Amino acid sequence: MKTALITGTSKGIGLETALAFGRAGHKVFATMRNPAMANDFRQKIKKESLDIIICEMDVDSDASVKDCINTIIKKQGEIDVLVNNAGIERHGSIEELALENFKAIMETNYFGVLRCIKALLPQMRKDRKGCIINVASVAGHISSSPLGAYAASKFALEAVSEALAQEVKPFNIRIAIVEPGIINTQMAKAISVDKESIYPHSKRFGGLFLASLKTPTPPSLVANKILEIAESNTWKLRHPIGPDAQPFIDWRASMSDEEWVDWNAANDDDWYEAVQNTFGLDAR
C-alpha cells in the first residue's frame, strides 16, 4: 500500500485518480481548494469504504501548500506518491486575453506544481524513495491558438519536470509526465467560441474540441494510467494518454515550424478541410 497526495481532486482527472488509488487499496489525501463542495465525493468514499481523506489546499498559496503537506507528513510519516493534477485553463488570442489570465494560469499550472514539489521533496530525498507524477498535456508539445497561454504553462511544466528527473534519480525518486489528449472533462468542454474575437482560432478550436468529444475519452483512462505508473517501477519520463495524444504529437513533429505556422494561419476553408482530411473530424 502506498500513500498518495493528489491535487485538484474536486472533479475530472483528479477526482477519478483519487478514486482509482483508493479502490486499489492505497491511502489517499485528496486535496482541493474548497472541500465544502465535495459532498458527492464524500458519499462515494463512504459508500465504497475507501481510505481517502479530503484536505483543503490551494496550490496558489505558499502557506496553504506548506501547512497541508507538513500536517500530512506529521500525521502519516511519509508520502510515497505526489500527483500534481491541479490546473486551470483560459483561452483567447495573445492580443485579446487579459494579462491577468496569463498570470493565473502560470500561478496554478506551473508555480503550483513547484510549491508542492518543493514542500515534499526533502522528505522523499531523505527517505531515498518516491514518485512524482505531473499532469501536463499534449499542449506541452504543441502550441496552438487560442491555447497559447495554457500551452505556455504546460511547456514550462514539461521543462522543469525533465530537469527535476535528472536531479532526483540518484535519490531513487521517479518523475513521470502524463500528457493527456482531448479528455471528456469540464475543462475540455469549456473551450468555447469567442464571437467577438478578431481572430478565427477560438471558433476553429471550439469546433475541433466539440467534434472530438462526440466520441469522448473518459478521465478514468488518465486516472488508471497514473495509478499504473505509481504502482510500477518504470523510469519512463513521458506518457501520452488517450487515442489522439501520440498521433497529435507525431503529427506536429512531422512538420517544420514554418509549416505548422502556415497550417494554423490558413483561411477557414483550408483549415477545416485539413482537419477533416487529417483527423476525420468535422470541426465546422
Number of helices: 11
Query: Order of SSEs, N→C?
Result: EHEHEHEHEHEHHHEHHH
Strand segment count: 7
Largest sheet: 7 strands, parallel
Give the overall form: globular
- Look at the structure and give the mean pLDDT: 92
CATH architecture: 3-Layer(aba) Sandwich
Determine and state the CATH class.
Alpha Beta
Give helix % range.
40-55%
Strand percentage, roughly?
5-15%
Look up the CATH topology.
Rossmann fold
Give the termini separation: 48 Å
Radius of gyration: 19 Å
Q: How many structural units, i.e. domains? A: 1
Q: Would you mind describing this structure in some detail?
A:
With 284 residues, the protein is an alpha/beta fold. The chain contains 11 helices and 7 strands. It has helices at 12-23, 39-48, 62-76, 99-127, 148-168, 186-189, 201-212, 219-231, 245-253, 257-265, 268-279; strands spanning 3-6, 27-32, 52-56, 81-84, 130-135, 173-180, 238-241. It has a 7-stranded parallel beta sheet with strand order 3-2-1-4-5-6-7, sandwiched between helices. The longest helix has 29 residues, at 99-127. The model has no long low-confidence stretch (mean pLDDT 92).
Topology of this protein?
Layout (H helix, E strand, L loop, with lengths): L2 E4 L5 H12 L3 E6 L6 H10 L3 E5 L5 H15 L4 E4 L14 H29 L2 E6 L12 H21 L4 E8 L5 H4 L11 H12 L6 H13 L6 E4 L3 H9 L3 H9 L2 H12 L5
Parallel strand pairs: 1-2, 1-4, 2-3, 4-5, 5-6, 6-7
Helix pairs in contact: 1-8, 3-4, 4-5
